[in-house]
Amino acid sequence: MFKKLLIANRGEISRRIGQVARGMGISTVAVYSDADADLPFVKEADEAVRLGPAPAKDSYLNIPAILEAAKKTGAQAVHPGYGFVSENAEFARACTEAGIAFVGPPPEAMLRMKDKSQARKLVAAAGVPVVPGTEDVVPDVGTAVSAAESIGYPVLCKAAGGGGGIGMAAAKDPAELEKVFRQCTDRAKAAFGREGVYLERYFSAPRHIEVQILGDHHGHLIHALERECSIQRRHQKVVEEAGSPLFADGKNPELAQKLFTAAVTAAKAFGYANAGTVEFLYSDGNVYFIEMNARLQVEHPVTELTTGLDLIGWQLRIAAGEPLTVRQEDVKRRGAALEFRIYAEDPVKFFPSPGPLKVFVPPTGEGVRLDAGYAEGNIVTPNYDPMIAKLIVSGATRTEAIERSIAALEQFRIEGIKTNIPLHLRILRDPAFRAGELDTRFLENHAKP
Amino acid sequence: MADVAAHITGTVWKIEVKVGQQVKEGDTLVILESMKMEMPVEATEGGTVKEIRCKEAQPVNEGDVLVVLG
Asked: What average pLDDT does range A87-116 have in this prediction?
């Protein structure tokens, strides 16, 4: 096992990876930008190295600075967390070339899934169901309009290099498609440095279901059941849970089996190893592959709490070359868990709300876990995404997890910034949510103030 | 005359108008960026852009005047 690990990330995930690593006897190196020097993830690490000024391109995306920090501190491995350099195959390759283990999939697997239309083709050829759409990047508006005719409206326009909902928009007719196509092309270029947009069928109210994958470098790969992440705003997840209410009390067993088989088939088609997630849309009794994320997912704790698997621990052991000793038949769900992303934002308009955390008193209680990136007295700056913490609550049943969540969120005291805690409470009290009737447009129609 | 202020704390990502330009109520004047989100700042009334009090990439606080309309 490694003696020293560099964590190329910030906030709650850097802190969490650090805690797991130190619990395994591994010394940790945090890297940070000028905006984050006072945050807990920097203070708790065994060593900390400044990367540069606040903008991500000068700090958390600054590959030469990260590699330099790893060499200077003698780190034997780098964990990239999620976001930033986590899905950057060049970074993974640069680490390997410098003799530093990259905690993640092989760079070749990352490249195979990075371009979404290429990824679609690859898994479809392996027999995985995919959303109806264009096989290739659409070169111009004219081609887009004629392709949309055979796919059927509404269609979704997606940037090929995109992710996290950036560079994505739906069109209900050819006129709207012309407008949206140009916007998406511009966004793809600005955000990801490359043009390329593809089209697919837009489902009006699908569910977002994903499957956790864990594989080693010796050919053993398993799934660790599903999560549901249908509660989203602006295509960003807000509440995630394990398992999906779709499969509650043993419902839809054939669909569940089809989903897990598709996920494992897709992961194997990519030549995947380490922890990853295969994302699907569910609509009208079918599941459709959308993409595979080559990294640890924000919402991984709901899987950890309901399967007992230590995903970050396994990531480190797998990266060190150890075999995955968990067999597929050992993976069983116990209870239910919900995760609430605590965002620094207005709970109604979703406007960002950076500022000082004058009061920050997390809740405690049975089944309550908090992964926080900040502590009382810290300043939440506008430089990075608005997630300041994740509240994860488990129970023997979904109902028990919901009741515990309400109690925990009511206790959670944050002053100085606005947060979406009131929104979470509205969601938890919504009859449709409680009945497990979820879809990705839930927040447009439910949990209103 | 109208002072159009930032409704969030963040940085100026793009300025969409020039001094002397005619604008209608609801036109986007400036796009702010905060926490990886783009937030348009719109004209509160129609008129002419008299003054632009910000630069691209400049950090701004909620309430800072960005554009003066007349």
From this structure: 95
Domains with residue ranges and CATH for chain A:
4-103 (3.40.50.20), 132-201 (3.30.1490.20), 207-445 (3.30.470.20)
Specify the number of domains making up chain B. Answer: 1
ipTM for the assembly: 0.77
Average pLDDT over residues B3-21: 94
A352-390 residue pLDDT tens: 999 999 999 999 999 999 999 999 999 999 999 999 999
Q: Which domain holds residue B28?
A: 2-69
For residue B63, the domain's CATH number is 2.40.50.100
Please report how many Cα atoms fall inside a 13 Å half-sphere around the Cα of residue A76, on the Cβ side.
12
Length of chain A: 449
Scanning every residue of chain A, which has its alpha carbon at the shortest distance from the alpha carbon of B60?
A382
Confidence of residue A177 (pLDDT cuts 50, 70, 90): very high
Q: Which residue of B has its CA nearest to A351?
A: B8
For residue A105, cis peptide bond before it (omega within 30 degrees of 0): no
CB contact under 8 A, A352 and B39: yes
CA distances from A448 to A208, A293, A342, A419, A444 (A): 21, 31, 18, 16, 8
Cβ contact A386–B36 (<8 Å): yes
Please compute, for residue A415, the number of CA atoms within 13 A of its CA located in the half-sphere on the CB side. 5
CB A15 within 8 A of CB A342: no
Q: Which of A234, A345, A352 minimises the CB distance to B10?
A: A352
Contact A344 B35 (CB under 8 A): yes
Q: Is A182 a catalytic residue?
A: no
Of the listed ranges A217-226, A271-280, B1-10, the one predicted with least confidence = B1-10
pLDDT, tens digit, for every residue of A416-426? 999 999 999 99
Note the pLDDT of residue A163: 59
Nearest residue on chain A to B7, alpha-carbon basis? A351
pLDDT tens for A313-331 read 999 999 999 999 999 999 9
Rounded mean pLDDT, B32-55: 93
CA–CA distance, A236 with A229 (Å, rounded to integer): 9
Contacts for A88 with CB less than 8 Å, ≥ 6 apart: A63, A80, A110
Among B12, B14, B31, B34, pick the best mutation site for testing chain A contact (most A Cβ within 10 A). Answer: B34
Nearest to B36 among A353, A355, A385 (CB): A385
Average the pLDDT over A154-175 and give the result: 80
Mutate to test the interface with B, among A353, A374, A384, A418 (most CBs of B within 10 A): A353
**Predicted structure pTM score:** 0.89
Residue given tokens 């890297």 in the structure block: A31
Looking at the complex, report in whole angstroms how far the Cα of residue A65 sits from the nearest Cα belonging to chain B: 22
Find the chain A residues whose C-beta atoms sit closer than 8 A to any C-beta of B: 234, 344-345, 351-355, 382-386
